[in-house]
Write a structure and sequence with these properties.
Length: 289
């Protein structure tokens, strides 16, 4: 009962503020829909494999094919539905990688400063200056693999520097608080101060930015797949757009590029709206809707 009371006291106002944030709630609903589609994809649409019938080539949307068919006669609705799984997978891997690398780097740089700050932020700046696409080409050539996991890994590698910078900035603000100085003067272990006091209080902007990483990851993956550098065996919205461009159907079969594009837009808007709602609910200085 005490834990429930403590939870209500700490998060009750934030949850209420989030539920009053219209865009945040819309974003949350969109994210829930995407997750449910990814989980129940086998129940929503048939798996896509092989080639379709020639007579089904580039059919417009109908009751039989809700999103029409592609240049190989395959159902686009099934491809878009199964593409949701790939998008969620890429986003989760990228977020976890950005979290595992970025938070420790930013935390150490912000708390200890000096050499930790110099080295940590120096490495961060180096990663921020490396172009993504050329590196993907090099890694794919060396590893002879451009699987969806490889693409997600590279996106995560390029996502952690932003998390590191945000964590560092937030950590430095928290370290300037009086209760941190009091904890140090009482002789509390540094590890306990970092994980119990600093990290918990510095995590709000980090958590908010993770939803942005999720949104940007699908844009990156779609761009990579559109250029033909993605996983040829994975279902991807970017791959559908690549196939539409390669087949020359961009100008003739409007449905071929429309529906995967709408899926990407829906994904990005949902996570961006969710980020706005979380940010405004957790930050009392930001005006809430």
């Amino acid at each position: 009962m005490e834990n429930i009371t403590t939870f209500k006291q700490r998060w009750g106002k934030e949850i209420k503020a989030f539920l009053n944030h219209r865009l945040g709630v819309i974003g949350l609903a969109g994210v829930v829909i995407l997750v449910l589609i990814a989980i129940f994809a086998p129940l929503i649409a048939e798996p896509v494999s092989g080639y379709g019938a020639y007579e089904d080539k580039l059919l417009p949307p109908s009751s039989e094919h809700l999103f029409g068919t592609d240049d190989m006669g395959l159902d686009l609705f099934s491809q878009v539905i199964w593409g949701t799984r790939s998008s969620i997978k890429v986003g989760i891997i990228a977020v976890l990688l950005a979290l595992v690398i970025g938070v420790p780097v930013g935390l150490l740089a912000g708390y200890f400063g000096r050499i930790f700050d110099t080295i940590g932020m120096g490495i961060t700046d180096i990663f921020l200056t490396i172009p993504m696409l050329p590196l993907i080409i090099v890694i794919a050539a060396i590893a002879e693999s451009n699987s969806i996991n490889t693409v997600a890994f590279i996106i995560g590698i390029f996502s952690w520097p932003d998390i590191a910078r945000i964590t560092r900035s937030s950590t430095m603000k928290v370290c300037g608080m009086q209760y941190i100085e009091a904890a140090r003067s009482l002789g509390i272990k540094t590890s306990k101060i970092i994980f119990k006091h600093v990290l918990l209080n510095a995590s709000t902007p980090v958590f908010t930015n993770l939803t942005i990483v999720m949104a940007s990851s699908i844009v990156s993956e779609s761009s990579i797949s559109f250029l033909g550098l993605g996983d040829p065996l994975a279902h991807s919205w970017g791959k559908i757009l690549h196939n539409a461009y390669q087949s020359g159907a961009f100008g003739t079969a409007w449905w071929y590029s429309l529906f995967p594009s709408l899926a990407i837009i829906f994904f990005v808007i949902s996570f961006n709206f969710l980020s706005m709602g979380i940010r405004d609910a957790l930050n009392p200085k930001v005006s809430r809707e």
